[in-house]
## 1
Amino acid sequence: MKLDSKIPEGPLEGKWDRHRFNLKLVNPANKRKFEIIVVGTGLAGSSAAASLAELGYNVKVFCIQDSPRRAHSIAAQGGINAAKNYPNDGDSVRRLFYDTIKGGDFRSREANVYRLAQISNSIIDQCVAQGVPFAREYGGTLANRSFGGAQVSRTFYARGQTGQQLLLGAYSALMRQVALGRVQIFARREMLDLVLVDGAARGIVARNLVTGKLESHSAHAVVLCTGGYGNMFYLSTNAASSNVTASWRAHKKGALFANPCFTQIHPTCIPVSGDTQSKLTLMSESLRNDGRVWVPKKKGDARPPGQIPEGERDYYLERKYPTFGNLVPRDVASRNAKQVIDEGCGVGPTKLAVYLDFAEAIQRQGLPAIREKYGNLFDMYRHITSEDPYRVPMRIYPAVHYTMGGLWVDYDLMTTIPGLFCLGEANFSDHGANRLGASALMQGLADGYFVAPYTVGGYLAGTKLGKVEATHPNFRESESAVSERTMKLLSVKGARTATDFHKQLGSLLWDKCGMSRNEKGLKEALSKIPEIREEFWRNVTVTGENGEFNQVLERAGRVADYLEFAELLLKDALHRNESCGGHFREESQTPDNEAKRDDTHFCYVAAWEFMGVGQEPVLHKEPLTFESVPLSQRSYR
Amino acid sequence: MIEFARSSIGKKVLVALAGLFLCLFLVTHLAGNLFLLVGENAFNHYAEALEKNPLLIVAEFGLAALFLIHILVSLQVKYEDRRARPIGYLQQKSKGGSSWGSRTMIFSGLLLLVFLVVHIKTFKFGDAGEGLFRLVVTAFQNKFYVAFYVLAMSALGLHLSHGFQSAFQTLGVEHPGYTPWIKKAGCFFSALIAGGFALLPLWAYFNLGGH
Amino acid sequence: MSATIHLTLKVWRQKNASSEGRWVLYEAKNISTDMSFLEMLDAVNERLVLKGEDPIAFDHDCREGICGMCSLVINGQAHGPQKAATTCQIYMRDFKDGATVTVEPFRARAFPVLKDLVVDRSAFDRVMAAGGYISVNTGSAVEANTILIPKDKAEAAMDAAACIGCGACVAACPNASAMLFVSAKISHFALLPQGLPERERRVLAMRKAMDAEGFGNCSNEAECEAVCPKEIKLNHIARLNREFLRASILKK
């Protein structure tokens, strides 16, 4: 297989414009004859489905929750970036592009990222027109705030609920198309297989989570917008239903999976309190705009934070990174937290936390100003910990949050399977090895509103697709494979729950493939995964039946897929013997413990081809070339 | 217009408007009744003047229409509300939104309906041969009747304590500056009306009965 | 500080939409007070699964109070005992050792039970499809700062837009009315200049859709406001009433 990223020729600035002109158009009268399946209704899925329907296509939308409005994009708090340069502080499309490339530690495609930066401004326009209530200045203009990894204020926000407001905007656009009859919504459905006919994606098999029945749907193209796989770590900031199943099943059908080891650990989460915890709660990193991160200088200092004098505190981010201070990118902040905790300076009952202190900000700006900016985050913290962050510093710890890796896509966001597109967090395209804050919302909406509507059309117009109904034998075949797997899960009747296996997998991955990774640990984990997987299929217990609402069965199916996918993630982490962004290999660091990239050997996208469960996957490399931003070691000092 | 009257909000608007007009009626009714305190002549004079007024019949029909709208539409709304939750809760505990008055609107309302029938039968169609004053004072010598009257007026107070401010909310009259005052006015108004009407039978019973 | 408590749960169990439900008692033993209410249910369910019994089905997703998926009426209160919180934000420190806790699904004709504590809230989606949007196609937006919105107006719109569509307002309303949900959307758009071109059409259509779903009528009791995890205020209902009256009068 030869990877063709289809990056248009010519200067960076004009690539997208020229490409759009070169893409074939579908005759307006013919659009209604095309059916498109969109799986997932987060920012990417909702915006893509609404925009495609507006163009006249027939769109079928599938979501795992009871309503498209509940997709996990809703939980994004901090904001969305755009190169509007409203604050007049020197921002531009080029700077947003540059920051994103650099923030991603030079492991993303220049052409894609440049397009993202170009589109960013239109997203804000679109969202405002939809009625998204962004924060405003007194004069009525839009307000901006700064965010990690950038020295300009380019983040637009709606209190601490930006993701929610953007998603509700996209959802409302989607519901408008539902009313117009161009979108059909299938809620409480889980995609369990991708169906190929003559090598092209022509439909999906989904399980109706209420009745348990399998449903086949045919289409001319399938758009996967099913998010990331962070939940594989068991404890993450993801929602319970976020999972890898749709992507993984597509991968098994031939879509290459790119850079799975690029996972992001978010620095500002509420620490783990006990072993019964089901999720970690993230607090927007906008908190780092005003909060100061510190630990006691003395190891094992058990005094309450208020009793530790200024001189005995180590504001380690400000000390090590005077230029960016507390606003260093997420990977840097997380890794440094791990370092000070490993050195024995952690705080709180578990010692697995650092302080995020607002005392100085409250003193400087006053309580009301802090309350206005972060009130809901402070409330959330108080709810969970029963501590008042206005009086005592917050305790924070890093947690798995986002996955930069995903299905490999070309410039058109099409995977290696013709007709299968992949948008948003589910693809690998724009964030390289580390995503900057407030860029996930930007990418999801860029893909959905402004890229896929053109490129999906280009594919449909330029491809000869025969008529395929859901009665095609390939659908029957997929259905029986899916139900065979389901029946197998139900028939094991072992002694351990799927959740238990999930916890075991999660803690293994967190230990060996979390914030820092080394060859020994990765190999150890790789040797354990097949054992856990074998035990899972021998000893898992799933209650109930297939033909009913069965949450135990749903979970078991997802855990089974994690147990296959985990191996790929570990293999990718093992093969990439360099540190870049969120992937920190202990073997590859500078004398002062910073990540050291190896551009000579690893300046490529690692795209993996599935060869069978437990079989060695085949690595395909897409070389990355940097023409506009010279390769350099990241420095935030 | 029909669609409006059939809509959930439209029905509530009708109930609210009728309710507010009925409040106006209560004010005039109470003002007239206060002639009782002045004396027999004054009260009878007022009653006669009222009955001689040719517009009274129009007003009475209007009043009857208001009552009918208020009662019938409320009952329909209540029926729909019951249907909206066919299976109820085993346990239901307020988080602090509702008040005693708001929760008992249907009961206070139904009690007032019974009162209305008795009240009209006694005073509108009672034998006022010796003047309305005598009729009223005689009726108020029965301690059960007085107790019933006072009970009904308490229900009226309760009904108004929610109904008055609720009507403004239903009509969309809301403003962060004024709404607290409307709520205060509602409390004052319900206390005034209920207290005023309840005062009369008590006054008649204790003052004129020679107990 | 964390402690361990034991509870008895009285839970509504119902196999599917068409079957009869019943009350079942469960022991929740050794529950850490640091657990969330849903984590407590997880623990009970894990034990049920190991015993080969059907675990209690309940809706949940983000577990941080924003997706609106979790529902539950706990001891007679939608989203449990705390104010301004969703069920997933309820922690076991709010419960006394040895207590019996009643757990019921949201009850409304418009929210039929699918299984146990899981209800179907798609009625909200249909109300939204009727008019809960601003009709603007992708690409046709004007430059964002050409629309100036005073800060207080934007904040007020945001207050309304914060609704997570969980349906607790319906669950807590004595009449199972959806007015708070609908009013939040109406208010959000009525406060913004972008929402004005469709102002009348929107409120008329959404009211109609709301009634068609079989929700009850609003009697201004404010139970909805009291349980709303996002503290959506009753004044939005007044605005909805106002908008509806206005649109009904202006209608041709």
## 2
Amino acid sequence: MTDSAMSTRAKVEKSMKKRRAAESRFRTYGLLSVLFGVLCLVVLFGNIFSKGFSAFSQTVLTTTIHLDTDYLGVTATSDPQELRNADYEGLIKQYLKDTYEPSGRRERRDLYGMVSVGAAWQLQDMVLENPSLLGQTIHINMTMDDDVDQWFKHDRGTANEALRFSEQQLVWLHDWVDSGALHGRFNTIFFTNGDSREPELAGIRGAITGTFLTLLVTFLLSFPIGVSAAIYLEEFAPKNRLTEIVEININNLAAVPSITFGLLGLAIFINIFGVSRSTPLVGGLVLTLMTLPTIIISGRAAIKAVPPSIREAALGLGASKMQVVFHHVLPLALPGMLTGTIIGMAQALGETAPLLMIGMIAFVVDVPGFINDPSTVLPVQIFLWSDSPERAFTERTSGAIMVLLGFLILMNTAAVMLRRRLERRW
Amino acid sequence: MTYSTLLIAVLIALGGAYLLGRNRARTLSSQGIKMHSLATHYGALVALWTTLPPLLILLLWALLEPRVIDLILTAQLPDSIRAGGEAEIRLALSKVYNLANDSDLMGQQGLLGPVAEHLQALQARVTLLRGGVIMSLLLLGGALTWRRIQPDLRARSEVEGIVRILLFASSAIAVLTTLGILASVLFESILFFQKVPVTEFLFGTSWSPQVALRADQSGSSGSFGAVPLFTGTLLISAIAMAIAVPVGLMAAIYLSEYATPRVRQLAKPALEVLAGIPTVVYGFFAALTVAPVIRGLGESMGLEVSSESALAAGLVMGIMIIPFVSSLSDDVINAVPQSLRDGSYGLGATRSETIRQVVIPAALPGIVGAVMLAVSRAIGETMIVAMAAGLAANLTANPLDSVTTVTVQIVTLLVGDQEFDSPKTLAAFALGLVLFVVTLALNYVALKIVQKYREQYD
């Protein structure tokens, strides 16, 4: 008897080492999994930030240029149309030619190519704003071409610099850097311009405005509809087969791939209802349908959390069912509903695929002014830029991603704060 | 009047009607007459009847107006254009619109000049008519309801009835959305299957949707065998699940069974941030960072790796899905009652033995449901594959090769200019139908399993 008991005990003790090792192995796997997830997050953010940080600075050449009235053929008293049409590009070329004396056509072309076409527009804007500058010698920070920009930020002094520039160009570039004329400054163009084929002139203002308009349409439609649907399903719907179908439907809709909403938008909103393509209006309609399930589900949870005693008290005092809901339940459930709505809007903000289907992928230079102007949105802009071969666009893509993530963090923080501040325990 | 002015007019009328109705009811009750409902109910009633009918009419008008104008204009196009078929009519119509809306062009009188002039006149008349109809509806609705304000009018019941209908209509939108998706993909798919047989689509192994521009061009038919797309989708999803399921599940187990509350408080939101990152960001990361790294690694080992390998897209998709699996499994693991664990500890099992032999089996249906939801997510994911996976429809199981997926093809077929009746465009809707049906089935079953399981221990 004791012998066999001892042997069982011995067996267990013998196996303990193995079992403990298995235990700690298992635990380590778990820890590693969590660490892997966190590591991915860190790598992802680090990668985007390290690539995108330089997008917020722009390389400019500080120089003085004489606004030659004879060359431009206009004076301070000319009318704006003439001022607009004057040959500023030619003036800049003339200035570059006189100052740096390139020999031969090839060198001239190289020299002109280093300054962005945007520099002429800068000059034009300055003159239009203040025509009395004509005839004077002015200071200007000329925007440089994206190649110069990339060289200044990344390749300066490395072996790569000879790949993109000729010897003479490198001499000029190093001279400019040594004299302090070529320098970086905050990239306002990135925030004030629309899209452009020239990386140094491309900005996200158009995309941000488009995003704002699209989200505005989405919010104006999805919040009232979502809240109404949640109220109906939670407070009024009879418990029958139809209600059950609606419920299953909403849960399923929340998990349907977003791209199918794009197909719906294309086939129904655009082809049948004739809403115009590429506009924040149709984008907002599609995103409304996509975010509705999220808002309804969170809205129902918020209504459920309101204790029945409140309803019963109101009913007991003679309120009608509708008054109970709108005067008592809804105000108490609203913070929870708002939180859900913000999370739904954050989803809509990052959504890309369905918007590609409804033509929000068009190349739009102008900043949209209203919900029926063609426009694009920030995630689609990121998609478009990521396809461009220029290195400067990669940098701008990362920059745009940083802006997008910034908005998302802002919205999610707002949701968390709102929940913390307004959450009530019954 | 434009739509925006009309909308503003309706909004002003809403406020005005409410105040008018309320004040009338107040005046009546201040005269000592006993009203059936509160004054605000009468206000609301007037406001609803004033604004709802014009809003509905406005919506219908916006839907029908372009269609009616198109019809009228088509009847006026020269016979030579009308004989040219639908495409030519559409082209001519868009020219007419450009002519009519651009004063610079209007000078160039061509064949379409008279039609454009007619359109201008028509547009002016329609706008006037629209304004007139909406304004008179506003006035009519307001006046009629205002007159109805009497002590025995049951304003509250009527308002509540209307509001109830509005609430119901809002929840019906969710059902309409599903029907809308189904109708849009089904209708175009039927057109597609009239041109390409279903069997060829489902079982054909060659996919090249390029349809030639001219009928006499060689290889003009295009081939629509979708099997390579299905296998490509499955390959990438399988890679993603191979990452997401073990990592997500182990992370959930660690966080719910081992981690101290403090670690849990920090790690759980960190993982959930991964789920909040837009997919376009993952796509960018996959295409520009992960793919070159994998290619470099593969080449250093002497393997031939495509620059758009399935591995890169699958890997990044896996990372994206980790929080999805972990938070769903976390829920089901937490739902397993403590008594089961205590029983297991009482029998002398270690923690990991309890988890492996008691908790996981008990939570298994829920975990399976979570994994199925994750699979449906992986199948439907678009941006990562659109940016990191290729377009070549290779029938292969080699993760280092480039494959394409259903979603990528939908995007490529539908982005850019499309002709609406070409098989190329319709094919996208047929793929959409497959995608919708498969994910819907997965979701439905998964939600059922999760729900059923939850009920067991409640």
